[in-house]
Design brief:
about 0% strand, disordered C terminus, mainly alpha
């Protein structure tokens, strides 16, 4: 009798265990489905975020590259134009910041964050002055092509500075293709003798590009409009000191030039600086480097189609190679990411 009871109890326990095991399997399966959906959702949101940041960065490069057009329309001295447009751009960002009823939180940040912000702002101001000086001696198109060495230097040094970037065959191939494209945009520049100062400008501008990207990727708590506003303000202070020492604080601009100066301050300085600084936080350094070639490409296109400068076969081939180099580096990277289902 007792044996039968034990057998019945054993059978009942076995059935209970099977039932519990089945429920555990169902729960595990549902958890797996939820985890997969969450992963897919996060990946999709990350892709949407990255696409948005890339678009913002491309727009900033186009606006910076189109400064050639507004500067020629204004017909103002290069350093004076730089001083005025940075001042207008700074006030533009400050106005937008105040209208948005935001509270400045600069004093709440750590000292290390403030150091990165100040260094980046100083580099922006110094690079603007270097470019202005180079434009007066070499012209806007050639100067922009010189500045194009910055993305290349960023691509080379990125694996040494950032943990999320590594050397790959496709990146190296894309860099070489883009470099050849930049060379073909103006081959005469590399064969024409230049002084030590021109070479120095190239190196300094390139180094500043890397420093700006490095500092802003280290800014974990300062971002968005406030970051761009303070950095451009610091850049304005640097330029204002140099401009005042060289020329005093007196300047006179005729009416048509003043309109184009305001346009340059808003559309070619304030807005692109905000788009640039707010986008590079969420982009990989190699993406920043490759997409950065859009800037010299924009300058060459404006010089060709707006100012009717000669368009040679080398120039066309150079444009195609720049776009091709960017495509090679990003296409194979995306193909690999889809294959691994990671982002």
């Amino acid at each position: 009798m007792k044996i039968d009871k034990f057998e019945d109890l054993g059978k009942a326990s076995h059935e209970k265990v099977k039932e519990v095991s089945h429920k555990v399997e169902e729960v595990t399966h549902k958890v797996g489905e939820v985890t997969t959906k969450v992963h897919d959702t996060v990946s999709e949101q990350a892709k949407i975020l990255t696409r948005r940041e890339v678009i913002k960065y491309i727009i900033s490069c186009i606006l910076l590259g189109s400064l050639t057009f507004t500067s020629r329309q204004a017909s103002v001295g290069t350093l004076q134009m730089t001083f005025l447009r940075v001042m207008i751009g700074t006030f533009f960002l400050m106005t937008v910041f105040c209208v948005s009823t935001r509270r400045a939180t600069l004093l709440d940040y750590s000292k290390s964050q403030l150091v990165f912000l100040i260094v980046s702002g100083i580099c922006i101001g110094l690079s603007y002055m270097i470019i202005a000086d180079a434009v007066s001696r070499l012209g806007p198109t050639t100067t922009t092509l010189i500045y194009a060495i910055g993305p290349g230097l960023l691509l080379i040094t990125a694996p040494l500075l950032f943990k999320d970037t590594h050397y790959t065959p496709t990146k190296i191939a894309g860099f070489l293709i883009c470099s050849l494209g930049v060379y073909l945009l103006d081959p005469t520049f590399f064969t024409t003798p230049h002084g030590f100062r021109e070479i120095f400008d190239v190196l300094v501008a390139a180094v500043f590009t890397v420093v700006i990207v490095y500092c802003n990727r280290k800014l974990e708590t300062i971002n968005g409009l406030e970051n761009a506003m303070f950095q451009l303000f610091i850049a304005f202070l640097i330029i204002a000191v140099v401009f005042t020492v060289r020329h005093g604080f007196y300047f006179e601009i005729p009416y048509p030039a003043s309109v184009w100066t305001v346009v340059a301050g808003i559309l070619n300085t304030g807005l692109p600086v905000y788009l640039y600084l707010s986008s590079i936080d969420d982009l990989r350094p190699d993406t920043i480097a490759f997409v950065g070639y859009v800037r010299p490409l924009t300058t060459v296109l404006i010089a060709t189609f707006v100012f009717k400068e000669s368009l040679t076969k080398n120039t066309l081939l150079g444009m195609a190679l720049i776009l091709g180099g960017v495509g090679v580096a990003n296409f194979f990277r995306r193909h690999k990411l889809r294959k691994n289902r990671t982002f």
